[in-house]
Amino acid sequence: MISRAIFENNVGGTIFLGILAILAVMVPVLHLAVPEDSFFHVSTSTVVVFGKYLSFALLALSLDLIWGYCGILSLGHGAFFALGGYAMGMYLKLQTSGGAPPDFMVFLNWKDLPWYWWGFDHLSFALLMVLFIPGILAFVFGYFAFRSRVTGVYLSIITQLLTYALWLSFFRNDMGFGGNNGLTDFSTIAGYSVQAPETRAALFSTTAIALMAGYLIAKAVVESKLGKVLVAIRDAESRTRFIGYRVEAYKTFVFTLAAMMAGVAGALYVPQVGIINPGEFHPANSIEMVIWVGAGGRGTLTGAALGAVLINYFKTIFTTGFLAPYWLFALGGIFILVTVFLPKGIVGTLASVDWRRWIPAKRAPADEAQLKPEPAE
Amino acid sequence: MDQVSGNKITRALLYLSGVSVSFEGFRAINNLSLTIDHGEMRAIIGPNGAGKTTMMDIITGKTRPDEGDVLYNDGNVDLTQLDETSIANLGIGRKFQKPTVFEQHTVEDNLLLSLKADRGVWPNLFWRTTEAHRERIDEILEITKLTAHRSRMAGALSHGQKQWLEIGMLLGQDPKLLLVDEPVAGMTDAETAQTADLLRDIAKDHSVVVVEHDMDFVRALDVKVTVLHEGSVLAEGRLDQVTSDERVIEVYLGR
Ligand SMILES: Nc1ncnc2c1ncn2[C@@H]1O[C@H](COP(=O)(O)OP(=O)(O)O)[C@@H](O)[C@H]1O
Ligand SMILES: [Mg+2]
Predict the structure, then answer these.
(1) Superfamily of domain B1-90+223-255
(2) How many domains does chain A have?
(3) ipTM strictly over 0.90?
(4) Which residue intervals define the domain ABC transporter in the entry (chain B) (predicted)?
(5) What does the pLDDT look like over A258-279, one tens digit per residue?
(6) Burial class (CB in 10 A: 0-12, 13-18, 19+), A22
């Protein structure tokens, strides 16, 4: 049932899943099995950097779920990504220290692990927390914000304040999360060296598969009747209440789901880049994500993922050369160009083109004449 | 509230008593009292700014009155304590003065969203549209003459078609009480007559309150009329009765 909904009339989504499936298989093969001097070899840095892009793509997808489909413009979505990242970082840190208090706690003269670190030496527990910590925070925050009917720019501001507050808190050494330096110096994950080529390849594939799963979940949600209610809320919130839908419940649901997906993205990001620090909570990160989604195409899912990969690819090129100081100008420029010339984003614009006009007509001219004009979108 | 049986304040479906509401000192509704019986259809007329829409806002929970009682279902439910969602789920449906449909959804999906069903998050996530649902949607499309437009975006409909879609959504909801605000604004004479037929048909098994300016339309409905003026009831009765009332003539025509 769901598979039909996903693949039928969904060319973009099928291509998207196909590319990810190929990447998930081919990148490890080309990285591990092809000799380094071969043209086809994929280098370690490429695996790492594209793995990072795919985790950002999952993050963008989750933001599109709330912003594109339910009109919730969160400017604090990065908080959930960072929390997922910290949950994974705590696990990795305890692998390095063998379950004892990690280095930064030793410097603070802490003899025992604080209670909130308990259990994080188990991968399964840490993975649950990757889902639950962002999920619970989003649920509680969403419950109060949506019940009080905070919407529009006010909601954007308080979400920004949420991530700002976390940013400040995680800088503090006595919070027990490594302060300014965050969590780094990871050695193993599930018993394998995080530096090993095999591990890097596996993490890349896992991220690609997580992105596919995230897409399928998001697609199933937006194609369901609940998804139609979300769009109804986006376009006419008050009307939706008057036909009996409890708007705050729907918003809380999708906000929580998106936060959990962002948490997974963060958890995949951290072992690949080898560090998580308070900088991930910075309000600017959350704003940047909105630009990824807007550029790729709000309310398209695949566009959000594409926007994240493209903009971060440009960012890598930009910030590794002499143009580095100008990245923020470039980002602002992209934002303005997209807003002015592609208000629907890349994928949104592609989707609104009537491709049949470009495909040579197979039908007889008589049929053509009978075609009713398509209603405007 | 006191619910001693046999000692009820009212047996009516909807009971407003002494309701007042002010916006920044301006009394939009002023000591309004009104009763709608089970199964009744009522027309409400009155000049612009008389408070007709505000009255509907109060009944549906959009606006909270400063004072007065708003009771539903034999006086069993105090509507002033509930929000829009709860009131909608008690069976009070509303068509807005400015047609409001979900513009980015197809006509069909607009009806699907309105269909009487569990409004919870989980049932809608795992929702399956059954044959019965499809039949009901087809029926409503037929009644509202929108069958040919079922796959169009609601935003692409004409003004009159949006009005009909909104009435169709009310049909889908199947509420006990329908509040219909200016349903024929912007319609041709033929469409107006058809809308009157449709509402009379709906009134056979629903209670309906219709606000309208169009006197031909109100005449066609042929029901009891309430005249609202400056937030309270000026006159009540049959249309020819109220239109011959001196005070009503004064309000409508000016002195
Ligand atoms: N939310 C509001 N804030 C301020 N004034 C309002 C509000 N709603 C209605 N009013 C005023 O109350 C009066 C009654 O309005 P309304 O109920 O829309 O009249 P009607 O539907 O009978 O034309 C008008 O003068 C209107 O300007
Ligand atoms: Mg009005």
Answers:
(1) P-loop containing nucleotide triphosphate hydrolases (3.40.50.300)
(2) 1
(3) yes
(4) 14-255
(5) 999 999 999 999 999 999 999 9
(6) exposed
